[in-house]
């Protein structure tokens, strides 16, 4: 199946302001997570970052080794309007599947669910490749049922365990206790670790 959800698809969504996923601020699970991060030099990627509220918060907290990535130039425009002091070259416009650097930490929020479900194996493999040994993929995955309708596309803990345990040690994959209220009860908090070898 070809990818129906191209950069143009997302750009049209931004232009028409059909951005129901955009909650206007960093979500609670990430606000809490960032408080626990001690090393400000940790190299972080946020793929499909959209308006980039989590990137903005990290930047304001003093994390400078951050790469934001989105397929749509509209996302970058929205972000830079709010955070003009952010180094422009650290917000990449491009396709996640073509990134070739490695990172210590990758953050997932409403990016996985935005992809064609047929790309899930590729997503898991790519995340593995993009992390340094011992690196972590941390974030949120929706647990409403996967149907033909989307994005957002749902899934189940069992599906995610099967998908990710091929590549990662599953440190955490549990119902998220501090989801924002519209998503409460429909998210898993995940911390997946790339093995050292
Ligand atoms: C549902 S939005 C979520 C945005 C953001 N994560 C948030 O929580 O507000 C999905 C985002 O992923 C981006 N996207 C979709 N496919 C992509 C790809 N292959 N590479 C990079 N970004 C992609 C879209 O442009 C869009 O901004």
Task: Walk me through this protein's architecture.
It is a single chain. Helix 3 links the parallel strand 1 and strand 2 (66-70). This protein has a seven-stranded mixed beta sheet, with helices on both faces. It is α/β, with parallel strands linked by helices. It has one domain (7-13, 26-193): Vaccinia Virus protein VP39 (Rossmann fold, 3-Layer(aba) Sandwich), CATH 3.40.50. It has six helices and seven strands. The structure holds S-adenosylmethionine. S-adenosylmethionine (SAM) binds at residues 5, 10, 21-22, 47-51, 69-72, 75, 95-97, 109-111, 114.
C-alpha termini separation: 33 Å
Name the beta content range: 15-25%
Bound molecules: S-adenosylmethionine
Give me the number of helical elements.
6
| Shape-level CATH architecture | 3-Layer(aba) Sandwich
- Please trace the helix and strand order, writing H or E for each element: HHEHEHEEHEHEE
- Taken together, the total number of domains comes to 1
* The CATH C-level class name: Alpha Beta
Low-confidence stretches: none
Q: Give the CATH topology.
A: Rossmann fold
